[in-house]
Amino acid sequence: MSLTSEEKKQEPFSKRILIVDNEPDITQTFKSALEQEYNNNNKKLEVHTFNDPLSVLSQFKPSFYDLLLIDINMPKMNGFELCTEILKIDVNVKICFMSAGEVNHEAVRELYPSISIGCFIKKPIAIDYLVKRIKAELY
Domains in the chain, please, with CATH? Predict the structure, then answer.
């Protein structure tokens, strides 16, 4: 069941995260760890996952997610391309990128001028670090 933006405003302590990575093991591991950590500490957290970036675009709603965690290196559409399209729908959404490779911030600025890399997490990601970093981004 999806909540409207109005219903979401009525639940000030609930947060929603969208994780996009082409590796199902990663999305499920992150989802389980984050939901367990937050929901065991009396904070409501809803985590949605996608393994196909193109599927995200067909279902993305403005003002629905508090944070997006997007892998950069994915087939069909990379994380920066996905982010560019998402920002056309919701310019205010917070985005955190993740990648096993290095990122040339200067090249990203030239190729994708609408993107600002404020949050970057290098893979492999330790679960305790992921939880702390997501908390810092959400609160």
Answer: 14-138 (3.40.50.2300)
